[in-house]
Specification:
The protein has about 220 residues and is of the alpha/beta class. About 20% of the residues lie in helices and about 25% in strands. The chain folds into 2 domains: about 140 residues, 3-Layer(aba) Sandwich (Rossmann fold), CATH 3.40.50; about 70 residues. It starts with 14 loop residues before the first strand and ends with a strand.
Length: about 220
Amino acid sequence: MSALLKQANNFATPVVIVADGAFPQHPVPLEILQKAATIVCCDGACNKLLQHGFTPHHIVGDMDSISPLLQQRFAAILHHFPDQETNDLTKAVKFCIAKGCEAVDIVGATGCREDHSIGNISLLADYAADIRVKMISDTGIFTPLLSSAALDSFPEQKVSIFCLTPAICIISQGLKYPLNEVIFDSWWKGTLNKATGHRIDLQFNFGKIIVYQSFYDK
């Protein structure tokens, strides 16, 4: 990645990364994609992006999932990083960081293979150390937190807390089932909760957590 890290140059914002999962169908991620000033596409997602009427500004990856025809067509915006120690989503996020990007939304990172979905979601906590990041699926939003935070919500919103750090202690406000007595020794602890109002407060002293919040159900 050393060559990638030398390419510092600010992007037009907002920036959206399109991963090679199920292409967004819900109005929320589609609107986010439509409003993007810069679209960074993982190489395997390029064909899906084009089929849905979008054009990438940058294509990032090891180029093993993009056809020779598309490689030729988009040669000027291809960013080839053959490193096999990271997946293409991570390459795309690091590319955005190297370009001076401070925040990014990720779409299309879930909905196909479950192992890919779990891996992509868990990586959010690693990305959060260097960039503000959210992942938007067709049902809700995943937000990584590395310290105490308040999140906007709405009454009865479905909320799940995934703790990547064992034995973490979280003090919560605004959840139907408070987390104060929960011992986080398994991923399912903290899931299937609900918001009671328009704000959720989560206080913790150390560790990494990922918060899932559903979209509004009409």
